[in-house]
């Protein structure tokens, strides 16, 4: 038992503080990426209930603007993770939505497996799958469109911003891989 507690105690040094210029670029990218997705929704769809903005995009913004060298932040992972997880989530809601706890558990678990098998692991994808199950009636009414709009389309808009903003800075290079 002691070895488990020792493992959980950490003990490694804290990561170094990020330089202010890197923090600025992360802020700018996330502001523009999320802002553009929300603006497109407001102008093209409706000024309320921003269904193009799914909660998982907040976590994607952290990765693609704040942790750009992470393998989990690369375009293949961003796009594939959201698309595939959206498909899994809709499928689980369609088949098991009458038992929400089961649909929720299956959606996240199978999304993880699907992303691992396709080399598209993107942690926010788990939330994309879960949102397909526990989302509002507006989300449920999208049905099989949900993986495309908002999941893939929003991720694509955020990727375009990431490609621009992350490469404006001399100290940044994004992506590392496709």
- N-to-C span: 43 Å
Radius of gyration: 18 Å
Helix content: 55-70%
Strand content: under 5%
Q: How many H/I helical runs? A: 8
Number of domains: 1
Structural class: mainly alpha
Form type: globular
Strand segment count: 0
How do the helices and strands follow one another from N- to C-terminus?
A: HHHHHHHH
Average pLDDT confidence is 93
Q: Main β-sheet, in a few words?
A: none
Q: Poorly predicted ranges (pLDDT <50, ≥5 residues)?
A: none
Any overview of this molecule?
This protein is mostly helical. It has one domain (19-168). The chain is built from eight helices and no strands. The chain has helices spanning 2-8, 20-44, 56-66, 75-96, 100-118, 124-134, 137-142, 147-168. α2 (20-44) packs antiparallel against α8 and α3 runs antiparallel to α6. It is globular, with a radius of gyration of 18 Å. The model has no long low-confidence stretch (mean pLDDT 93).
Short structural summary:
The chain has 178 residues and is mainly α. It contains 8 helices and no strands.
Question: Which structural traits does this protein have?
Answer:
mainly alpha
Layout: helices, strands, pairs:
Blueprint: H1 2-8, H2 20-44, H3 56-66, H4 75-96, H5 100-118, H6 124-134, H7 137-142, H8 147-168
Helix pairs in contact: 2-3, 2-8, 3-6, 3-8, 4-5, 4-6, 4-8, 5-6
